[in-house]
Design goal:
350 residues, 2 strands
């Protein structure tokens, strides 16, 4: 096991029980004896289980880099805030994508709908639970033990991440709806806003802000996070179509069904032969995709070189991120963690 995987595993061991206890206590306080509310809070808690805790671990790492020493338990609420935010965002994202699976289980809207014959009920409660998660995430930072000045900077940093993520999601929905695949810069802007900020740059900067990091360090973490986070998204797009559902824990047809605007689709449509383009236009964004259709799209992405081109692009962003590490830290252990993180995120198999 690499050092970064061991670091994340160790953080996860501390984080998971903290989050479990926090949400259980919250459910008891807010839901009380109202069984319907208690059931909904339990669905949200269940949705958060089984995650990799990468974002929460990066909050701790950013804090330790800025501190120059190991962090104590005081950082746990901020780490938990990012993990709870992720559960909330994924709950909303699965509604938007109409995706029934997340982490190998029913997504929140599907879990809520289970046993009921009302699709709209599940969607409505998933939106509400996502909102609850966002509110809780911010509250965790406000109620942490750090001094007021640092908490104000941290909350501003955290809300900036949330706004960027929502901007990216709105652009994603807009471009997918308009079937606008002709703007490579716009597609990369979505990856920057929707993924890079809340996956890499945001967690590192939140932890660093709570340690009183300098503007220079915060900026270096931003640039590192944008490059690596974009590489992560490009890799995710490849796996989202090219991998088995049991390996990635989510649907491998939802991107195709939605007509998700990705560099894969952009390159494939640009290079496709007329017959291939006809197939893509028939299947991509059709709303209902069979396994046979997925294979057709996957083969077109392969034969047009879209998979290879996107993988090459991800490698270039990974190299850019690696070049910024020495601006972030001169600590050999921390530098190794950041380098291994890049390899893990941009070259992963699942």
């Amino acid at each position: 096991m690499t050092a970064v995987k061991e670091y994340i595993r160790s953080c996860k061991e501390a984080l998971e029980p903290y989050i479990e206890d926090y949400i259980a206590g919250l459910a008891e306080k807010r839901a009380g004896s109202v069984s319907g509310l208690a059931e909904l809070y339990e669905i949200f808690r269940e949705a958060g289980r089984g995650g990799k805790c990468i974002r929460g671990s990066l909050v701790k790492l950013g804090h330790e880099i800025a501190l120059g020493r190991p962090a104590g338990d005081e950082i746990l609420p901020a780490c938990a805030a990012f993990e709870i935010l992720q559960t909330a965002i994924l709950g909303h994202d699965d509604v938007i994508d109409k995706s029934p699976l997340r982490r190998g289980r029913d997504s929140i809207w599907r879990a809520v709908t289970r046993g009921r014959d009302d699709f709209h009920y599940g969607i409505s409660q998933a939106i509400c639970l996502g909102d609850v998660g966002i509110f809780l995430a911010n509250l965790l930072i406000v109620e942490s033990v750090f001094d007021a000045g640092r908490k104000i900077e941290a909350v501003k940093t955290f809300i900036d991440v949330q706004l960027n993520t929502v901007d990216g999601e709105m652009l994603d929905v807009l471009m997918s709806y308009d079937k606008d695949y002709g703007d490579e810069e716009g597609i990369l802007r979505i990856a920057n806003l929707k993924t890079a900020w809340y996956t890499i740059a945001g967690p590192l900067r939140l932890g660093a802000a709570l340690a009183g990091a300098s503007p220079e360090l915060m900026d270096a973490m931003r640039r590192y996070g944008i490059f690596l986070g974009t590489a992560f998204q490009l890799r995710d797009d490849v796996l989202g179509i090219n991998a088995a559902e049991e390996d990635i824990g989510k649907s491998n047809t939802s991107d195709i069904a939605e007509g998700k605007v990705t560099l894969l689709a952009y390159y494939a449509m640009k290079r496709a032969a007329p017959a291939q383009l006809g197939q893509l236009r028939r299947i991509y964004g059709s709303g209902a995709v069979s396994e046979a259709d997925r294979v057709i799209v996957r083969n077109i992405f392969e034969s047009t070189g879209a998979f290879a081109e996107v993988t090459k692009k991800a490698e270039s962003y990974l190299a850019e991120a690696a070049g910024i590490i020495d601006e972030i830290t001169q600590n050999a252990e921390h530098a190794a963690l950041l380098a291994q993180l890049g390899d893990m995120m941009a070259r992963r198999k699942s």
